[in-house]
Amino acid sequence: MDQVEVVVAHSQRATLRVGDRFLKVDGDPAHAGVEVRAMTMAPVPTPAILWHEPPVLAIAAVPGTALGVLGRPSPASAAAWAATGAAVRRLHDAPPPPWRGRGLDDVAAELDRECAWLLDNAVLPAEVIRRNREIAEAALRPWRSVFVHGDLQITHVFVDGDEVTGIIDWSEAAPGDAMFDLATLTLGHEERLDDLLAGYGPGADRDVIRAWWSLRSLVASRWLIEHGFDPDAPGCEFDVLRARMREP
């Protein structure tokens, strides 16, 4: 019998690996519903859906290895990053999904709320929070909604050599800002942005991507802390925020 590996577990969801299968258990069945629908619509490689019996979704493992992990240099080639950019562009060029995504007002309200919490709890120096809040303003502008993955972390893209073999974890997919996906993918790996955009093509706004690095790190930090993760680990969210202080 295959051993059971706990891939991730917290109060909202857990993912288990059993052989070449993943079992995703979510307290909110809507997440799996979105994931299933998004994977059937996305014009990029996604895991095969084996079965779905709420609250459990079973998917097949995708071949290859993750593009990298947060806090360590990505071992993937420049060509693999460019192929990833091309895959993300295909996604963004596809018709957006029919459900509602987060709007500008939602994002702005979340940013205000999370910055207030960070300041009240003094988890970072106030000047780091305030400077990144200023940088994040560039992301708070009207955008043309596209099909976004919504949680396009570097660990969610799998490659084999220079080919993208699968993109996983689609529960946050929705209409949204293309620059958010590009920023999430390069968070903590800013040095690979040129490689990614070489495949993505025209239309990327580097200032907005930079703003999303700050914004995403600010709004994610409380959730990470409250669910047992460490945003202060090397190369993670707090380091991303501190790095902005060294920029002109």
Automatic annotation (TrEMBL):
UniProt superkingdom: Bacteria
Domain Aminoglycoside phosphotransferase residue range list: 37-212
Family annotation (Pfam families): APH (PF01636)
InterPro entries registered for this protein in UniProt: AGP_Transferase, Aminoglycoside_PTrfase, Kinase-like_dom_sf
Gene3D superfamilies: 3.90.1200.10
Name the record gives this protein: Aminoglycoside phosphotransferase family protein
Lineage: Bacteria, Bacillati, Actinomycetota, Actinomycetes, Micrococcales
